[in-house]
Inverse folding.
């Protein structure tokens, strides 16, 4: 075991060989963030590999983080899409610390892909983002807004039939539309990754609707196609100022071979006013369709899901109209 892996295991609340709930034998750490850690484990009865996600000791002392952890499990369990990492169970350690049992994935996230390979071909970037939109169509229909979409939370995995599938990760700071967020202090209310946050989320993370996720998708598309973040800055105040007041460099100027019309679609996602963006991921998908040959299946599934959702979908749609890894890597961001 290398020095980094040893350090991760020292912070991890479990050890290789531990058996949890008489069902899961811990194998190894897959990844660790500031708040959590993900380990590979084997389901002893089913002889199936799974991933277990835990909070680190320091995070357990923060009620807001524990609440976010529970919210992630509930949100992921509700969304029945092949494009999210499934949560199959939850449990607690003997000391009461929670953990969740997740689908084990092999692959890499799109942030790693960008760093390794540079900007993606436009058709590939659109394919990946439209797959993510399938998961978001399901989530938004249920009234769930992700609030932390970015390349690092889009995980590219290989299915058994050889197809590449995007999984949307980390619903830990997701919000149920119109639901109050109890327990968040002012300093804790700015949730998300600043480079990908919409202006309204930056001002008040509790007052967002699905169009905030559309902003984040626009930032992600811009970055996947140019390898540049449209609002990058040297400090958090500079990033915030650029998001709230600045305008990004025209994507077509960075990538002249991109159709002007495609750059305009992405630019519309980045409109400062939510009213000027696409109202739903369905509208965005239709706008991207001319530039995304081979993605008809994703686009059709997005439209069907938004058109045939349960009754709670109407509230989300009305909100939209009126104004919320290389090698084996963890199946969800361990950051929360």
């Amino acid at each position: 075991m290398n020095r980094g892996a040893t350090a991760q295991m020292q912070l991890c609340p479990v050890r290789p060989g531990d058996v949890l709930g008489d069902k899961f034998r811990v194998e190894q750490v897959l990844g660790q963030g500031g708040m959590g850690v993900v380990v590979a484990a084997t389901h002893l009865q089913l002889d199936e590999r799974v991933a277990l996600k835990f909070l680190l000791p320091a995070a357990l002392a923060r009620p807001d983080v524990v609440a976010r952890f529970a919210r992630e499990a509930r949100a992921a369990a509700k969304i029945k899409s092949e494009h999210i990492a499934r949560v199959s169970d939850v449990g607690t350690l003997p000391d009461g610390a929670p953990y969740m049992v997740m689908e084990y994935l092999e692959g890499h996230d799109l942030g790693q892909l960008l760093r390794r390979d540079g900007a993606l071909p436009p058709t590939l970037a659109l394919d990946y983002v439209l797959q993510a939109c399938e998961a978001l169509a399901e989530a938004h229909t249920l009234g769930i807004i992700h609030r932390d979409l970015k390349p690092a939370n889009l995980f590219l995995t290989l299915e058994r039939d050889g197809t590449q599938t995007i999984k949307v990760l980390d619903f830990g700071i997701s919000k149920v539309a119109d639901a109050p967020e109890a327990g968040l202090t002012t300093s804790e209310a700015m949730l998300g990754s600043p480079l990908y946050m919409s202006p309204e989320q930056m001002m008040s993370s509790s007052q967002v609707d699905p169009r905030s996720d559309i902003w984040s998708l626009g930032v992600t598309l811009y970055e996947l196609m140019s390898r540049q973040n449209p609002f990058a800055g040297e400090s958090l105040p500079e990033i915030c100022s650029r998001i709230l007041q600045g305008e990004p460099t025209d994507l077509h100027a960075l990538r002249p071979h991109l159709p002007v019309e495609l750059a305009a679609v992405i630019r519309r996602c980045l409109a400062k006013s939510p009213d000027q963006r696409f109202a739903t991921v369905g509208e965005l998908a239709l706008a991207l369709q001319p530039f995304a040959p081979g993605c008809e299946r994703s686009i059709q599934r997005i439209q069907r899901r938004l058109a045939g959702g349960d009754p709670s979908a109407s509230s989300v749609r009305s909100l939209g109209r009126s104004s919320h890894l290389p090698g084996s890597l963890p199946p969800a961001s361990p950051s929360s």
The mean pLDDT is 82. Residues 196 and 219 are 6 Å apart (CA to CA). The first strand starts at residue 19 and ends at 20.
